[in-house]
Amino acid sequence: xxxxxxxxxxxxxxxxxxxxxxxxxxxxxxxxxxxxxxxxxxxxxxxxxxxxxxxxxxxxxxxxxxxxxxxxxxxxxxxxxxxxxxxxxxxxxxxxxxxxxxxxxxxxxxxxxxxxxxxxxxxxxxxxxxxxxx
Length: 134
Description:
six-stranded antiparallel β-sheet; mainly beta
């Protein structure tokens, strides 16, 4: 986890470009939002090794999948993940296409934004941008 400490968003439009560079166990990564602490936040991630795009909540340190879709995003190339959250509605886009549309009431308040990878994933990120949705 890498979190931007001076951020606070509730309803947001969040985007980030990422490129999976290396990793044998995992090459995934993506943004986190409504981050309260290292044990409580939402995350969306794409993993080119598994050809899937997923959205999770991490609550009390336990990660639970809220939605998933088959998707291709070739490693070694730049791709864009975009999240729109309004109230309990979470929409997750990959390269401009809506893949995931879920609802969840776990984290209702504003939180920080950041970036996430796991295991041996080596992922580059660029151009993280967030705006508050009105």
